[in-house]
Automatic annotation (TrEMBL):
Alphabetical UniProt keywords: Cytoplasm, GTP-binding, Hydrolase, Nucleotide-binding, Ribonucleoprotein, RNA-binding, Signal recognition particle
Xref: InterPro entries: AAA+_ATPase, P-loop_NTPase, Signal_recog_part_SRP54_M_sf, Signal_recog_particl_SRP54_hlx, Signal_recog_particle_SRP54_M, SRP, SRP54, SRP54_GTPase_dom
Protein name listed in UniProt: Signal recognition particle protein
Short name of one Pfam family: SRP_SPB
Gene: ffh
Subunit structure, interactors included: Part of the signal recognition particle protein translocation system, which is composed of SRP and FtsY.
Protein species of origin: Amycolatopsis vastitatis
Record-listed E.C. numbers: 3.6.5.4
Amino acid sequence: MFDTLSDRLTAALQTLTRKGKLSDADIDATAREIRIALLEADVALGVVKTFIARIKERAKGAEVSQALNPAQQVIKIVNEELVGILGGETRRLSLAKTPPTVIMLAGLQGAGKTTLAGKLALWLKKQGHAPMLVACDLQRPNAVTQLQVVGERAGVVTFAPEPGNGVGDPVDVARRAIAEAKHAQHDVVVVDTAGRLGVDEELMKQAADIRDAVEPDEVLFVVDAMIGQDAVTTAQAFQDGVGFSGVVLTKLDGDARGGAALSVREVTGQPILFASNGEKLEDFDTFHPDRMASRILGMGDVLTLIEQAEQAFDQKQAEKAAEKLSSGQLTLEDFLEQMLAVRKMGPIGNLLGMLPGAGQMKDQLAQVDDKHLDRLQAIIRGMTPAERADPKMINGSRRLRIANGSGVTVREVNDLVNRFFEARKMMAQMAGRFGF
Ligand code: GDP
């Protein structure tokens, strides 16, 4: 996502960095490049026009700054304006003063609503809430079962109409669900509603009826970022038909050009609350306009990386490993633990993609392979605890046994063991030098 846009914007801005002083003509030329980049990324025309006009106006009228050179000033302006069209401040979910908070999901079929319900439930649960999912998508065959499955995976209760009563009334289901949530003390209720392949009146009416019945604290419009320009028209239709208080972008992991993400907030005036970037329940997070902007401009997303690392790493375990490292006592067991912690943060390519300058390392990143890590993990798991603790004892016959047990070649086992020793030696030296 955003790769081409990011490349083009970076290129447009890089030509500036070579200049000491910027003329109006320089600014116009850069603005033209940015305009093309945005249009190619499928950003709505109106949004592009406003954006470019603001950049030009601000860049030409910029005060002479002591701290920044003219090029840096333009980059700063573009960054600020990008943050602006993405919504400015991070908008958090608003919770009801008296529970339950009711969150209703609306959007086209296939937008990712049901998946999102599971993601949201897991996310809420991790924050100490007791969410309940409600199946009000009674149109699509299997929608109820699908919600029950994601609910189970997230470890939360799903309220659904009893099977065998024909197609139930979603408004009635929604009402009963709220009563049940109060009774069973669920503090957040997530209502999944039906979607259609295209916008139609009946769909809007049903969604509006459910909205009136449950009086939601948030109506979240769920939109597939891959649908490009259509995202904007769909968003407008839902805004007129049901109204919503926030947007969730899904499928940001796809290779779409990203225009939806950049247009929807500006066009509807409603903030983007969450972003989804994969099919797994964990592939989901709060949307931060500032971080997204710096990612688009190729400045990396160090903040997100740090946050994810904080969540994935157990501080004590990390300290223990650091201690062993400095004394050259790191075992394969520690190595495996660290590797698993890194894995918890997501696919390795995604992680590296958040680092500053990663845009220019794309080819190398493409070669970082999660499957390779899986194999390393399989090899270490194929060792006995004694072997992991003291890899020196892994002789030829042990290597053969480990290779057979984990379905790899002896050469791969050799590679891992040799590299481990090398790394251990090197890290001990480094630890000595840097004093950690
Ligand atoms: P609904 O009809 O709106 O309820 O949509 P679903 O939740 O059934 O999702 C439609 C399809 O999109 C499913 O195959 C999901 O696995 C997939 N999907 C949902 N969210 C994402 C996402 O963020 N990334 C990717 N790649 N696929 C997703």
